[in-house]
Design brief:
The chain is 35% helix and 22% strand. It contains 6 helices and 5 strands; from the N terminus they run E-H-E-H-H-E-H-E-H-E-H. It has a 5-stranded parallel sheet with strand order 2-1-3-4-5, with helices on both faces. The two termini are 14 Å apart.
Length: 181
Amino acid sequence: MAKYVIISGSPRKGNSDAIAEFIKGSLDGEVELFDIKSKDITFCQADNACKVKDECVYKDDAYDLIKMLEECDGAFFIAPVYFGRLPGMVAAVIDRFYSKFNPAKGIPMPDVNKKIGLILTYGGGEDDYTPVAEQTAFAFGVLGFGSHKNVLVGDNNDPEAFASKDDQKAAVKDLVDWVIE
């Protein structure tokens, strides 16, 4: 049975949660929903203790997420873009991926068959946040994800906007289909 992880990275209840539930309802298999706002996350100290122990020394929810991502068949990452970047709590989680980046011991090549779908929401309608998505995809590469696709969904200032946007639902559904193929 396939295992998937859905990461919701919004500090408020709204579109990211609605997208996560939409994705969850589109998947067969084991699905783990990781809602960052409800988790206990320690900031990365960049003290390199992880380089000695080959894993993060902080055993919190971010540690558990890293393990889930390493063991899953595919994943989805959903977050809003604020001021041209991901929210701070999301950055704190991604910073913890540092524990898996150790050039001195060699870095395994990401698996092109391990896919992550990235969905970024934002309030404007004409902005292109592809660079934010690409940087995020690079970080997930450290955990073995070798393929990614992005869906950028704008005009979502209203926390309930996604629910009424059939075009955005179709784009997210196409992304789900790509991850599970």
